[in-house]
Amino acid sequence: MSVYIIKAPDHRIYVGSTNRPIRKRQTEHQSECFNPERASYHSPLYTHFRKCGMKPEDIKCEVIVKCDATINLRAMEAKWIRHIG
Question: Which of 2, 4, 8, 74 could form a disulfide with 12 if both were Cys (CB 3.0 to 4.6 A apart)?
Fold first, then answer.
């Protein structure tokens, strides 16, 4: 369980969380962002990434905190969103 960030070229930061291995989630973000067949392709996040000129290899999930099963992952993600702004 991890809370992670993805940095866009315009220095905006996306905060996310996952129960899955971080590299698997990174691959999912890359596919969702660049595959028009995916339902989330037109989401504001992925539209922004493409507008900034990101390529699949530019989407890198950087773990900012690892959590164990006793931590509420969504609450930890929300805490980091507030912290980063």
Answer: 8
Contact 65, 80 (CB under 8 A): yes
Residue-averaged pLDDT of the chain: 94
How, if at all, do strands 62-66 and 2-7 pair?
antiparallel
Give residue for tokens 């969103």.
Answer: 81
Distance CA 45, CA 78 (A): 17
β-bridge mates for residue 4, sequence order: 16, 63
- Residue 15's DSSP bridge partners are 5
Which of 5, 39, 1 has the alpha carbon at shortest distance from 19? 1
